[in-house]
Amino acid sequence: MSREIDQREPRDDDGRTLRAVERGASFVITRDGAPAARLLPFEGDRALVSRDELKRTSADLPHVDFDRLRCDTEDLVDQDLRDPFTVHGEAGPQRVLPFVGMFSSGHGDISTRL
Questions:
Q1: Which of 14, 27, 70, 80 has its CA 20 to 30 A from that of 110?
Q2: What is the pLDDT of residues 84-107, one digit of tens each?
Q3: How many CB atoms lie within 10 A of CB 31?
């Protein structure tokens, strides 16, 4: 459990708070009696894990067939590239430009003919 300390205590205690944290203690730092921060021991950089730990933690994961995943993805994703601002209607393709002319025409018409 964390002990509550006032924000001034770490500054005024000649390093006792930091030494306690290095030994494993944790503190909740308060400002005007309200919790403002938590002071915890540094546990090291967890971004990198050992090869053995990676093998151990991923041993139970299912096998992924990457060729099948790619085929499934290609079946689900539309492979045609289209202009997201082009609208096809009875008058033919029109390019819709968001907010262009919206206030200048007075009619709210924001599309321009290609």
A1: 80
A2: 777 766 766 676 666 555 444 445
A3: 11
SS3 category, 19: helix
Q: What angle do CA 104, 85, 94 make, to 5 degrees?
A: 70
111, two tokens:
């599309």
Q: Which CATH architecture has domain 3-39?
A: 3-Layer(aba) Sandwich (3.40)
**Higher confidence at residue 100 or residue 76?**
76
SS3 content of the chain, % helix, strand, coil (to 5): 25, 25, 50
Strand ranges, E, within the chain: 3-6, 27-31, 34-39, 86-89, 92-96, 111-113
pTM to 2 decimal places: 0.39
Confidence at residue 96, expressed as pLDDT on a 0 to 100 scale: 66
From-to residues of CATH 3.40.1620 in the chain: 3-39
CB atoms within 10 A of CB 17: 19
Q: Which two tokens stand for residue 113?
A: 């003919």
